[in-house]
Here is the input.
Amino acid sequence: MGNIRITKQFNFEAGHALYGYDGKCRNVHGHSYKLSVTVIGRPITDVGHVKLGMVIDFGDLKKIVKEEIVDKFDHATVFNKNTPHIELAKELIDRGHNVILADYQPTSENMVIDFAKKIKARLPENVKLHSLRLQETDTSYAEWFASENE
Ligand SMILES: Nc1nc2c(c(=O)[nH]1)N=C([C@H](O)[C@H](O)COP(=O)(O)OP(=O)(O)OP(=O)(O)O)CN2
Ligand SMILES: [Zn+2]
Here is the structure.
């Protein structure tokens, strides 16, 4: 049996600001992010296996992506910790806000690279991350493909 790709989609709301950017996105603002996670592998053929016919149970994929990404980023504000925004971030943290201090500029490109690393580290041996698509607005998204990052 051949390789099959399966995809699960996630949504989360997050704020961010692009420090030093020459446009309106230098302001703190938010997005309703849509993340599509595609993995590839061979469906299980062992008739005695509870996951017969699955590459990975969608539920198991959901658990990984929720724990690594959605539960952390949903309703958080992401700042580049290598910029003066660290001061703003510290103030918000002190006031009990949910803040993520990223070691990168929080563009959709950098976020999708970060997400790929985190998801890859949690997948079982027989399942590979194929691609991610992170949609920031109705008209803007970034994609990561394993085949382009080997
Ligand atoms: N290459 C990138 N460019 C921009 C990013 C990014 O992550 N990567 N991010 C932003 C802003 O954060 C924000 O997402 C604005 O994006 P944009 O598509 O420009 O939003 P608009 O509302 O102006 O889109 P329209 O649909 O064209 O009105 C900026 N750039
Ligand atoms: Zn934005």
In short: The radius of gyration is 17 Å. The chain has three helices and six strands. Strands lie at 4-16, 29-41, 76-80, 99-102, 128-137, 140-145. Residues 4-148 form a domain with the Tetrahydropterin Synthase; Chain A fold (CATH 3.30.479.10).
